[in-house]
């Protein structure tokens, strides 16, 4: 009898040892808190039809960010002063849990009753729909308007490594470019003063001192490079625009562009 009990104890111990060796699998499956139709986006304007806008994603359990055309906000709510009259579409990009989604909301802006950052008026004029035209600030031999500069930082934008414009300017040296907010952020590039323009769009980021040109139209003087169309704003006033390219693909240096209103 004692022998049987000992055998049972040995068997029970072996079972415990083997069961302890079995892996513990914790299967965590992502589940969706709702579907795309259930994601609620809300837009509020400080005044009826006004251009100070707050957009919110108010559904619980959703994470994501807003693309509000002027930039992105890594939050569920963002307030901004929008510079373009008419109907504008803003996009929320988020996760339901197991899948990503995008959803949009339209906002009708009928009046620019909240003043924009001064940079907007300097770039496109007080008449934002009519816009403003810029040309290279050429003032004769030796003038600086399109030149090689140190790469890496806008702090060296006005340090001249090679005054290329004095001998070897771009093909559009006598062209022009136009910015306006007539229903959209419109950008037009003219190869010469009388040429038919190519049209694109632009993004002005006063906070980060960036000007980005998008679409088919290229920045005046883009022969210096910059495939992504992004420039650092060194100076932007009513009568002067200085842009800096941190890394020219063409020359592997910095590059500086100086413009004045037409």
UniProtKB/TrEMBL annotation:
Keyword terms of this UniProt record: Signal
Signal peptide (residue range): 1-20
Keyword Signal: yes
Protein name: Lipocalin-like domain-containing protein
Organism per entry: Flavobacterium hydrocarbonoxydans
Lineage of the species this protein comes from: Bacteria, Pseudomonadati, Bacteroidota, Flavobacteriia, Flavobacteriales
């Amino acid at each position: 009898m004692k022998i049987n009990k000992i055998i049972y104890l040995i068997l029970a111990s072996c079972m415990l040892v083997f069961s302890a060796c079995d892996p513990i699998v914790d299967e965590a499956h992502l589940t969706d808190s709702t579907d795309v139709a259930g994601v609620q986006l809300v837009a509020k304007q400080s005044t009826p039809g006004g251009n100070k806008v707050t957009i919110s994603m108010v559904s619980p359990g959703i994470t994501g960010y807003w693309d509000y055309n002027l930039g992105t906000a890594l939050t569920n709510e963002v307030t901004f002063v929008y510079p373009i009259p008419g109907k504008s579409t803003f996009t929320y990009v988020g996760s339901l849990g197991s899948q990503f989604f995008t959803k949009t909301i339209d906002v009708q802006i009928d009046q620019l009753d909240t003043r924009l950052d001064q940079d907007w008026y300097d770039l496109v004029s007080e008449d934002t729909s009519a816009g403003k035209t810029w040309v290279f600030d050429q003032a004769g031999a030796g003038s600086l308007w399109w030149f090689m500069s140190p790469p890496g930082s806008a702090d060296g934008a006005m340090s001249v490594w090679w005054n290329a414009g004095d001998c070897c300017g771009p093909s559009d040296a006598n062209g022009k470019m136009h910015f306006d907010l007539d229903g959209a952020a419109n950008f037009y590039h003219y190869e010469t003063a009388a040429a038919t323009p190519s049209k694109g769009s632009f993004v002005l980021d006063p906070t980060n001192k960036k000007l980005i040109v998008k679409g088919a139209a290229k920045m005046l003087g883009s022969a210096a490079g910059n495939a992504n169309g992004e420039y650092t704003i060194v100076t932007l006033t009513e009568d002067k625009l200085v842009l800096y390219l941190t890394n020219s693909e063409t020359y592997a240096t910095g590059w500086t562009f100086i413009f004045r209103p037409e």
